[in-house]
Amino acid sequence: MGCAGFTCSKHALCALNILYVMVSLLMIGIAAWGKWFGLVSSFQVVGGIIGVGVFLFFVALAGLIGAMKHHQVLLFFYMVVLFMVFIVQFSVSSACLAINREQQDHLLEVGWNNSQSTQRDVEKSLNCCGFKQVDPNLTCDAACFPNRSCLPCADKIQEHAGEVLHFVGGIGLFFSFTEVLGVWLTYRYRNQKDPRANPSAFL
């Protein structure tokens, strides 16, 4: 029937949603693993990643069921939600790629001041204390703190922050285009006739 046919559209949409299901389970698994082994102590970070993973899982599940059953309501719901996710993800990814050094510094400092658990995680993993200066009167979980040989964390974070933002922005941009593909496939699939149904019925 060719790739423009009903069966090809159905299989392509199913494959795309299986990919989304796997990505969502991977996100949930990595977040839970990081929390379980104490790599990340911030409940907000872990909860946010798991929340996004669960949301993506249910959206992908709705798309998968809709594709398998050629269910018009589920496919329409899936198409609308996926388009909204695309707009948000494309905007965030573009911002990550376009952010300059000054904006990056400001965002890092705001994030640092808003979460003490994140501060402890960063200090432990990067072996540094404080953001822009080391205060000997405050406690610090870094191994260098008892020796008073710690450096501020801002410089160490900046070494990796730019690369991480560009990596996250690139990955987000890639997945945002798969979402456009998903919307287009869903729109086309919804308006195709199911060859197993009544030939006079337009589903």
UniProtKB/TrEMBL annotation:
A Pfam family matched in the record: Tetraspanin
Membrane as UniProt keyword: yes
Alphabetical keyword list: Membrane, Transmembrane, Transmembrane helix
InterPro entries, per database record: Tetraspanin/Peripherin
Membrane-protein topology: Multi-pass membrane protein
Principal cellular location given in the protein's record: membrane
Protein name: Tetraspanin 13
Provenance organism: Zoarces viviparus (Viviparous eelpout)
